[in-house]
């Protein structure tokens, strides 16, 4: 009987940890969602800093705006400072001169190291699965602007 009890303790602890983490993730997702999408009612797709800020928000807070069959864009895949550098690089794919041109080169390498698995080396994504980051305006911005 005591052996069975000793075997059940780790299982019980795992179950408790699993469900507490899941609840915490759901709460954080709701907070991130509200922070990233209810701050802006419209986003000017012709404004380089606006595009950069939108990209930073998606990287920092995640996104499920497209409801693709793949998982949502997870939050925090890189640090907030690295998100700014990736946003500077992606602004160049949109044809903009970024707010911080000195970040573009490092942002490009951060993009290649963290984002190309879903968005490809060219940033084209895969229709219906991962958004095209070279599209102007970005589809996510269009959807947000439509409400």
Annotate the secondary structure layout:
Blueprint: H1 2-37, H2 48-61, H3 80-93, H4 104-114, H5 116-119, H6 139-146
Helix pairs in contact: 1-2, 2-3, 3-4
| Helix-strand topology string | HHHHHH
- What is the total number of structural domains? 2
What is the distance, rounded to the nearest whole angstrom, between the alpha carbons of the first and last residues? 60 Å
- Helix/strand-derived category reads mainly alpha
Strand content: under 5%
Count the beta strands. 0
Q: State the share of residues found in helices, binned by percent.
A: 55-70%
- Mass-distribution shape: elongated
Q: Runs with pLDDT <50, length 5+? A: 22-40
In DSSP terms (H or I, runs of 4 or more residues), the helix count works out at: 6
**How is the biggest beta sheet arranged?**
none
Average of per-residue pLDDT values: 83
Radius of gyration: 19 Å
Description:
It is a single chain. The chain has 147 residues and is mostly helical. It has 2 domains: 1-39; 40-146. The chain has 6 helices and no strands. Helix 2 (48-61) packs across helix 3 (80-93). The longest helix has 36 residues, at 2-37. The radius of gyration is 19 Å and the shape is elongated. Mean pLDDT is 83; it is low at 22-40.
């Amino acid at each position: 009987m005591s052996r069975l009890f000793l075997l059940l303790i780790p299982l019980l602890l795992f179950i408790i940890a699993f469900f507490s983490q899941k609840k915490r993730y759901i709460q954080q997702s709701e907070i991130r969602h509200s922070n990233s999408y209810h701050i802006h009612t419209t986003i000017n797709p012709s404004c380089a800093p606006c595009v950069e800020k939108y990209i930073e928000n998606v990287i920092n807070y995640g996104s499920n705006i497209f409801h693709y069959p793949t998982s949502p864009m997870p939050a925090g895949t890189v640090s907030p400072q690295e998100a700014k550098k990736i946003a500077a690089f992606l602004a160049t794919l949109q044809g903009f001169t970024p707010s911080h041109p000195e970040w573009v080169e490092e942002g490009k390498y951060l993009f290649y190291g963290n984002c190309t698995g879903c968005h490809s080396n060219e940033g084209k994504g895969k229709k219906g699965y991962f958004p095209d980051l070279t599209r102007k305006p970005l589809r996510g911005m269009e959807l947000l602007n439509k409400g």
